[in-house]
Amino acid sequence: MNLSAEQIQSQWDKFIGYINKYISQDRAEKLISFYEQHKEEVMLMPASHKKAYHNCFPGGYIDHVNRVVECALKLTSVWNDMGINKDTFTLEEIVFSAINHDLGKMGDGEEYAHVPSTDQWRKKNLGEMYTFNTKISYMSVPDRSIYLLTSNDIEVSPNEWLGIKLHDGLYDSANEPYYKTYLPETKPRTSLPFIIHHADMMATRIEFEREWLPKFNTETSPSIPNSTKTKSTARKKALSSVSSPGLKNMLNNL
């Protein structure tokens, strides 16, 4: 899938609009200042480096983040309707977490994490359209997200820290101490991380269906070779001449 320049710009405007609408003025100004410094790169970032994953195309990152925000807002409404304790988080914390959950994919602020691949073999055979920038030291995406925010003097609340840190759910084993806990005292005191995780999963699933299901639906089943059809016909004819049920069963299983 590809986005036009106009679509990428529209997604960026929507992204900035979410910040202005839901984030308090002081933090909104700092967030917008940060993102404007890296505007061109963030606008054109993919959401992943490989076509088999989600939104692996220029503009895919912002498209994904905006969808996570939309899903998070809708899921918050559903959870509220079902009786969640609404006092354990704010709508600003939901949107802030959704906006910044994958920020670490950008890089470290000086070096960008993904660069277009020049390896034609890997692009053609593995679908790896981007490659990792080895100038950047390893850090998990959630950890780098939080690092980038705090190092740019953007305050992160405890709820937002949990929302960003745990957004991959149990797909990341590092999150097990938070999710796989059996004591009331150690369970999360807010449902915000669950909402953000579900929103991220929902957005990613939608992106998968949009990209891949049309391709699957247009594929045709492989035809049966004539030689196979001939052998099948000959087998049926031979078995019809065998009178012993036991022998027929044995030959049929060969």
Key descriptive features of the protein:
254 residues, mainly alpha, Hypothetical protein af1432, two-stranded antiparallel ribbon, 12 helices, 59% helix, globular
Chart the SSEs and their pairings:
Blueprint lengths: L4 H18 L2 H13 L1 H6 L15 H22 L9 H10 L13 E3 L3 H7 L3 E3 L8 H11 L6 H8 L10 H4 L12 H27 L7 H15 L4 H8 L2
Antiparallel strand pairs: 1-2
Description:
This protein is mostly helical and 254 residues long. The protein has 2 domains: 5-218, Hypothetical protein af1432 (Orthogonal Bundle), CATH 1.10.3210; 228-254, no CATH class. The protein has 12 helices and 2 strands, in the order αααααβαβαααααα. It has helices at residues 5-22, 25-37, 39-44, 60-81, 91-100, 120-126, 141-151, 158-165, 176-179, 192-218, 226-240, 245-252, and strands at residues 114-116, 130-132. Strands 1-2 form a two-stranded antiparallel sheet. Helix 1 runs antiparallel to helix 5. The radius of gyration is 25 Å and the shape is globular. The two termini are 47 Å apart.
Please mark out the parts with pLDDT under 50 across 5 or more consecutive residues, or reply none: none
What number of structural domains do the residues give?
Answer: 2
| Overall pLDDT metric | 87
Spatially, the strands of the biggest sheet line up as 1-2
Strand segment count: 2
| Sheet of most strands | 2 strands, antiparallel
The portion of residues forming beta strands comes to under 5%
Helix coverage percent of residues? 55-70%
Structural class: mainly alpha
In the CATH hierarchy, what is the class of the largest domain? Mainly Alpha
The count of helical stretches stands at 12
How far from one another are the termini?
Answer: 47 Å
> What is the overall silhouette?
globular
Q: What series of H and E elements makes up the topology?
A: HHHHHEHEHHHHHH
